[in-house]
Write a structure and sequence with these properties.
Low-confidence stretches: none
Oligomer: single chain
Order of helices and strands: EEEEHEEEEEEE
Shape: globular
Strand content: over 45%
Number of strands: 11
Structural class: mainly beta
Length: 155
C-alpha cells in the first residue's frame, strides 16, 4: 500500500501538465509533483522509485482518490494511476495492464471520492525499479488537489 497528497493539472484539450509520483509502498507527507511525462532524471522520480527485492507478480491494482479543493470544471475530469517499472540506470516505462482510471463528477466538491480496481497479471523481475504516476485529464485547463491511496495485490 502507498499514497500521498496529489496535485494534478491538465491543459485545454486533455493534455496532462503536472503529475504526482507515488511510491508503491509507503506514503509521502507532501506532494511529489513534476511535469508530464516524468523524466527518469527528475528528483520526484528518484524520490518515489523503489527497488523490488524479489520477482513479483501483481494480480490486482487499485486506488482511491479523495478531493480536497473544489474544482469548477464543466467536463468530468479523469484521474489515472499507472505503475511504471524499469531497471536501474534506464528510464522506466508503463507496466502493461497495471493502469486504473476514474471519472469525477463536475463540478468537483471537497470530499468527492472515486475508486478503481482492475485485475492484472504483471510480472516484474527482482531488481526492477517501480513507482506510480497519477495524472488528470479534462477537455479544459484545470487543477485537482486531493489524496490518493493505492494498493497492489501480489502473488
Amino acid at each position: 500500500m502507498g499514497g500521498g497528497p496529489v496535485t494534478l493539472s491538465s491543459a485545454l484539450g486533455g493534455i496532462p501538465l503536472a503529475t504526482t509520483l507515488l511510491p508503491v509502498v509507503g506514503q509521502f507527507q507532501t506532494g511529489n509533483t513534476t511535469s508530464y511525462p516524468p523524466s527518469s532524471l527528475d528528483q520526484s522520480v528518484m524520490a518515489a522509485t523503489q527497488t523490488l527485492p524479489a520477482d513479483t507478480t501483481i494480480t490486482n491494482f487499485r486506488f482511491l482518490y479523495t478531493n480536497s479543493v473544489p474544482a469548477f470544471t464543466l467536463n468530468p475530469p479523469q484521474i489515472t494511476v499507472e505503475l511504471y517499472s524499469g531497471f536501474p540506470g534506464f528510464p522506466a516505462t508503463p507496466v502493461a495492464g497495471a493502469i486504473c482510471s476514474v471519472f469525477l463528477f463536475s463540478p468537483v466538491p471537497v470530499g468527492q471520492v472515486a475508486s478503481c480496481s482492475v485485475p492484472t497479471n504483471a510480472s516484474l523481475t527482482e531488481g526492477s525499479t517501480v513507482y506510480l504516476v497519477a495524472t488528470s485529464t479534462t477537455n479544459e485547463s484545470t487543477t485537482l488537489s486531493g489524496f490518493i491511496a493505492t494498493a497492489l495485490t501480489t502473488d
